[in-house]
Design a protein that fits this description.
alpha/beta, Rossmann fold, 9-stranded mixed sheet, 9 strands, 40% helix, globular
């Protein structure tokens, strides 16, 4: 196995950051976003040394289930680590986390660098999913979390597969829950907006012309079934606007090129993984389509002998399955067997 990176973990409230403000400071003057404000207030910052950027420290936001008396049993198999997608963040998972916590589970959700409430460094900073996977590994090791379920979505699915490839031997992973993501690009419907952002000529121009409220309301209406609604769109816009997240989207969407380069390698890792897997797929997804879910099941998971797997189709679910069907996603996470 190739190991592309090494990592250094420095736990801190805010490390050697270039954040102009924390999300708590930001929401002290941001109006009308109670859920996003609550999510921010329940989290904290820590410092991660980016291998792809010469060890440059970046401040990452994470929201973990509270442990006021320090007695949480992080190794009892009732912890979930969340790997979010593009262009959003851990905020997507708020309702799933609520379901888990009501049932006695714990969850830790990281905003990867460039997303959500984390730092958003500008060029020449290099964004890489290998760094994002290294950040997951660093955080889990730093918090001494063992025997956990890994839940991933969209871009986070690829990060999850890199995590399996690079770090699985160092962790006890109870199960991997994979939700709609374009893990085989030839089966995906990449949108016109994604293509514009990805292009080196149009991307830097388009990100400067794209208002966060327009992007957020578009996501709320097109990739949730039913629509997530105007208020959710407003709250999501405030998250996207934090530290001008739209202004790094040309850089962060380059994960699609990285996926194109390595997808077969990562899928091969998945086909041989010894971690049990639940594939959960919203059938109304216009991007990571129902046909893509079927392809992954039929060609990667159905007949693998290295670990058990199952496949659940959510007929009324869309791309953001964790947003429009949180109870079903939480149920799959908590179901220990596949």
């Amino acid at each position: 196995m190739r190991v592309r990176h090494s990592i250094i973990l420095l736990m801190a409230r805010v490390g050697a950051a270039t954040l102009t403000q924390t999300c708590r400071e930001y929401y002290s003057s941001t109006v009308g976003a109670p859920k996003a404000t609550k999510w921010c207030n329940e989290g904290e910052y820590w410092s991660f040394s980016s291998p792809s950027n010469g060890g440059q420290e970046v401040s990452l936001f994470t929201r973990c289930t509270a442990d006021p008396d320090g007695t949480a049993e992080w190794g009892d198999g009732k912890t979930t680590i969340i790997s979010h997608g593009f262009p959003t963040s851990s905020f997507d998972w708020q309702d799933v986390v609520g379901e888990l916590e009501q049932n006695g589970w714990r969850a830790c959700a990281i905003d990867f660098v460039g997303f959500g409430f984390s730092e958003k460094p500008r060029s020449p900073f290099v964004y890489s999913m290998y760094d994002q996977a290294a950040a997951l590994h660093a955080f889990i090791k730093g918090k001494s979390i063992t025997n956990f379920t890994l839940a991933s979505h969209d871009m986070g699915d690829s990060i999850g597969l890199i995590f399996l490839q690079q770090y699985a031997s160092e962790h006890k992973i109870k199960k991997h829950v994979v939700i709609n993501g374009s893990l085989k690009l030839s089966y995906a419907n990449i949108t016109a907006m994604q293509k514009l952002l990805l292009d080196d000529v149009t991307g830097p121009v388009f990100e400067n012309l794209l208002p966060a409220p327009v992007l957020a309301q578009g996501l709320a209406s097109s990739v949730f079934t039913p629509s997530a609604g105007v208020q959710y769109g407003h709250e999501l816009a405030t998250v996207l606007e934090f530290e001008d997240g739209i202004g790094v989207m040309h850089d962060t969407i380059q994960y699609l090129n990285e996926r194109e380069q390595y997808e077969d390698e990562w899928l091969d890792t998945w086909s041989k993984s010894t971690v049990p897997c639940s594939l959960v797929w919203g059938q109304q997804d216009p991007v990571a389509t129902a046909e893509l879910g079927d392809y992954l099941w039929n060609n990667i998971l159905e007949n693998r002998t290295s670990a058990p797997a199952d496949y659940e189709k959510v007929e009324s679910g869309n791309h953001y399955l964790q947003g429009d069907h949180p109870a079903e996603v939480a149920r799959v996470i908590m179901n220990g067997g596949v």
